[in-house]
């Protein structure tokens, strides 16, 4: 179901690179492997006879639940990445994200103080970057992750030029 508040008419959304799924899965997998390993300790202790409590079914339930959550995240992450989009309009930049709880952020060019580009090791390896917009409001949180490096550089220059042209007295 689409609403005009989240999906304004006439806006052509640009999506981030599908390679960003790899970045998200790599970051998530590192934490998940540690969680499954820790949750498997009671199971290993019960199976080796070192510990008699909890019962085998209870000890097996923890890592099994963690694996079910892992499978759900593997299904969810690609959909979350496809939901990220941005649109350049005449006076502002729209940033969209979210599947269940959708959010559209509008950043007027005249309110931008500076544009920042960053890339972690996995992003650099895939030729991606994250563009962050800094405004007078500390709680803006305007960022576009998963941009191809060339598009990130182009967007940084474009947004900086538009911000200077429309400076709103900051």
Structure description:
- With 170 residues, this protein is an alpha+beta fold.
- The chain has 4 helices and 7 strands, in the order E-H-H-E-E-E-E-H-E-E-H.
- The strands form 2 sheets. Strands 1-2-3-4 form a 4-stranded antiparallel sheet. Strands 5-6-7 form a 3-stranded antiparallel sheet, sandwiched between helices.
- The protein starts with 13 loop residues before the first strand and ends in a 5-residue tail after the last helix.
- The mean pLDDT is 88.
Task: Describe this protein with a few key phrases.
single chain; 170 residues; alpha+beta; PH-domain like; 4-stranded antiparallel beta sheet; 3-stranded antiparallel beta sheet; 7 strands
Q: Give the termini distance in whole angstroms.
A: 39 Å
Overall shape: it is elongated
The spatial strand order of the largest sheet comes to 1-2-3-4
Specify the structural class.
alpha+beta
Major sheet attributes: 4 strands, antiparallel
Count of the separate structural domains: 2
Order of helices and strands: EHHEEEEHEEH
What proportion of the residues is helical, as a percent range? 40-55%
Care to count the β-strands?
Answer: 7
Average residue-wise pLDDT: 88
Residue runs with pLDDT of under 50 for 5 or more positions: none
Strand content: 15-25%
**C-alpha-based Rg, rounded:** 21 Å
Q: Architecture of the largest domain, according to CATH? A: Roll
């Amino acid at each position: 179901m689409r609403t005009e508040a989240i999906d304004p008419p006439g806006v052509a959304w640009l999506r981030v690179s599908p390679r960003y799924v790899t970045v998200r899965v790599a970051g998530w997998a590192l934490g998940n492997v540690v969680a499954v390993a820790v949750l498997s300790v009671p199971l290993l202790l019960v199976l080796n006879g070192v510990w008699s409590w909890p019962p085998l079914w209870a000890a097996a339930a923890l890592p099994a639940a963690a694996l079910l959550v892992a499978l759900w995240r593997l299904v969810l992450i690609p959909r979350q990445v496809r939901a990220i989009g941005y649109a350049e309009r005449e006076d502002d930049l729209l940033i969209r994200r979210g599947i269940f709880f959708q959010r559209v952020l509008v950043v007027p060019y005249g309110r931008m103080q500076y544009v920042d580009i960053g890339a972690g090791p996995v992003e650099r390896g895939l030729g991606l970057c994250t563009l962050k917009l800094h405004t007078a409001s500390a709680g803006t949180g305007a960022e576009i992750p998963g941009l191809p490096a060339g598009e990130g550089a182009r967007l940084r220059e474009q947004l900086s030029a538009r911000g200077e042209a429309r400076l709103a007295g900051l």
